[in-house]
Amino acid sequence: MGLNRTPRHNPVLPTKSPILSRSHSRSQTMKTTQIFGVSLSLILINLAAIMERADENLLPSVYKEVSETFNAGPSDLGYLTFVRNFVQGLSSPLAGILVINYDRPTILAMGTFCWALSTAAVGVCHDFLQVAFWRAINGFGLAIVIPALQSFIADSYKDGVRGTGFGLLSLVGNLGGIGGGVLATVMAGQQFWGIQGWRCAFILMATLSALIGFLVLLYVVDPRKRFPTTRDASESSDRDDTVYKGNASAASIWIDSWAATKAVIKVKTFQIIVLQGIIGSLPWTAMVFFTMWFELIGFDNNTSATLLSLFAIGCAMGSFIGGSIADQLSQVYPHSARTMCAQFSAFMGIPFSWFLLKVIPQSVSSFPIFSVTLFIMGLTISWNGAAANAPMFAEVVPVKHRTMIYAFDRAFEGSFSSIAAPLVGILSEKMFGYNSKSVDPIKGSSPEALALSKGLLSMMAVPFGLCCLCYTPLYYIFRRDRENARMLAVKEEEMM
């Protein structure tokens, strides 16, 4: 009792220190500023995702008009998609190398300017080979942007809600795809100031993309700077003293890049997801012919845009719902929930592809059943990326290697899946009798629509089934890889 000599009232000491009050006020101001910065960065990143998906959907939405302009058949149009995807796949590892040494906002802006330039160039091309060249440049820009976007989201969300974060990114991206597809499809059938509508759509989209890239460069802050760990802060400081000031040697950059590459490629979970992705991307690449297929059936531009919008809305909602469901289930089944969700989504692609392309009568009178089928199909087959692939990648490698793992995933999937589009065209023409000269520019052609649907079905139903089977080993491997990554992170922290 006698040890407590503090008086009950001390007139000398104020009840609240002005210094502490000012410090608390500064702390609150800094916290508010940080929250605003995070929100602004995520908004601009999502806007970049919107423009990226809109740009991807531009050309497929005007296949019919491009076909008429350049006298190109389905296989020629498929080669345009092949060229872009193939270059995108080969160039994707460059994003992983760049992110090791430079800020992601700078890389995102650079890639956005690149794809904006190529998109505008396509809009003024007068030769098919010119279009192919600029589509290749477009793939290079997208190769830099997409892995950086994915790792940005992975670093901005915690493990338990990462599926929802990727689902939200996919949701807004799909909304951008809807906007880009609808805009291009509606504008394609018109002329503006004597210029073909599809060309105006490309130039308009390029302008908007460049604007978003400029805003990203100015206002987006890399999560590594907002939420640095002890090790990250040390590494960031080292980078600031070397690479950002131009003092890093090319040898050290390539050594770091090679070490990151080896660390990523040897992860079994990565190998399995890439394998299923190579197969599972084939149907999605083949779907670029949906707009052309609907127009061949006899639907006009606006109706075709409506059908594709319903499918895209279903995909947007499905990716968000699938990511959220996987997050909730992973709280109960942490090692298997994401794999189960992915297998369910891949399996649903089989019956829906068959029903859409084989069962529904290919007539304009089938619009209602096409609408319902496409929406529900999109709602169920779009879970894999947000529910499983992207969140699982983030958990099986160290934080510093996340962009690299997303980059190599895009490299392998993009390179191999790019063959799907020309294969659809080749199958439709050589095996099922598609003849581009028989197509009526206004009414379409029922025989050619049927031939194209058979080519699409060949590249959708079987790959969906194989994709579902390829996920099975993850029930045993994902748990081990995630524990290895966590142990490695703990050891690195202890060494620091």
From TrEMBL:
InterPro entries for this protein: MFS, MFS_dom, MFS_spinster-like, MFS_trans_sf
Q: Which GO terms describe its cellular component?
A: membrane
- Tell me a Gene Ontology molecular-function term this record carries: transmembrane transporter activity
Query: How does the protein associate with the membrane?
Result: Multi-pass membrane protein
> Per its UniProt entry, which superkingdom is the organism in?
Eukaryota
Regions crossing the membrane? 32-51, 77-100, 107-129, 135-154, 166-189, 201-221, 272-294, 306-325, 337-357, 369-390, 411-428, 456-478
Annotated keywords: Membrane, Transmembrane, Transmembrane helix, Transport
Family, according to the entry, reads as follows: Belongs to the major facilitator superfamily. Spinster (TC 2.A.1.49) family.
The name on file for this protein is: Major facilitator superfamily (MFS) profile domain-containing protein
**UniProt source species:** Glycine max (Soybean)
Gene name of this polypeptide: LOC100812646
